[in-house]
């Protein structure tokens, strides 16, 4: 039975596990791992050229000439090796990251991301930067204890940033559909639209309406969850966080970190079955406590 070495296919590309192919051909894993990267790249390029020639010849002779009855000799659809990646993390269809060391024949050293949550603009820059760091550590096979320590460090840092730095970035629409004149909201209002009503209520309550910009449909805003408070508010949507809000309401940093940081780390760890790394800092703390 033939083995399939294609590990992922997209609209116009395939990712092939050539390392696995070489191991199955009798190359010893220890020997391969001890090879210089340039020698590995050389082997991969040789195999890629063989694949290119085979696929291009077959696609021309059978697909183009027979299936599509094209007899044009000087026009061929061709495929070529584009990138060489050391590692890849495939989360789901059109959501993956690769550590590329060769691009279009030239040496590079970069992480390329397609479709993953960490590059979406709704995550704050403070969160995105740290998520990208964790993703790079995973792709570069950083020891697990270092990943655990870095996650713990990031959570500690995120608890001390400004509300603007931890808030989710969300565009606002349908305010008039859900928010009443008295700044109450109708059933079905999204969390960020509720936050607009709460923002307006607090500005009015604290006599700050003259000092802070109102929020309108079509604007990009920041949204945070807040801790239990006398106003029964769960979210606040804002452009610039009024310092006066801190006297009556507090950002729920733990909830923001859980929803927009930890939850996205799980997305990266689940394909490897290593969500348990998120429990690592608790284990580390217990080990330190008990010696």
General description of the model:
With 291 residues, the chain is α+β, with helices and mostly antiparallel strands. The chain has three domains: 6-114, no CATH class; 122-162 and 266-290, no CATH class; 168-240, Ribonuclease H-like motif (3-Layer(aba) Sandwich). The chain has helices at residues 18-24, 29-33, 37-67, 125-139, 144-158, 163-166, 175-178, 191-205, 253-269, 280-290; strands spanning 6-9, 14-16, 83-92, 95-103, 106-114, 168-171, 220-225, 235-238. The protein has a three-stranded antiparallel β-sheet with strand order 3-4-5, with helices on one face. Strands 6-7-8 form a three-stranded antiparallel β-sheet. The protein has a two-stranded antiparallel ribbon with strand order 1-2. A hairpin with a 2-residue loop joins strand 3 and strand 4. Helix 4 (125-139) runs parallel beside helix 9 (253-269). It starts with 5 loop residues before the first strand and ends with a helix.
How would you summarize this macromolecular structure in one to three sentences?
With 291 residues, this protein is of the alpha+beta class. It has ten helices and eight strands. Strands 3-4-5 form a three-stranded antiparallel sheet, covered by helices on one side.
Sheet/helix structural class = alpha+beta
**Secondary-structure element series:** EEHHHEEEHHHEHHEEHH
> How would you state the average pLDDT, rounded?
88
Query: Quick one: biggest sheet?
Result: 3 strands, antiparallel
Beta-strand segment tally: 8
Query: What is the count of DSSP helices, taking H or I runs of 4+ residues?
Result: 10
Q: What gap, in angstroms, lies between the N and C termini?
A: 53 Å
User: What form results from the Cα inertia axes?
Assistant: elongated
As a whole number of angstroms, the C-alpha radius of gyration is 26 Å
Strand neighbour order, sheet with most strands: 3-4-5
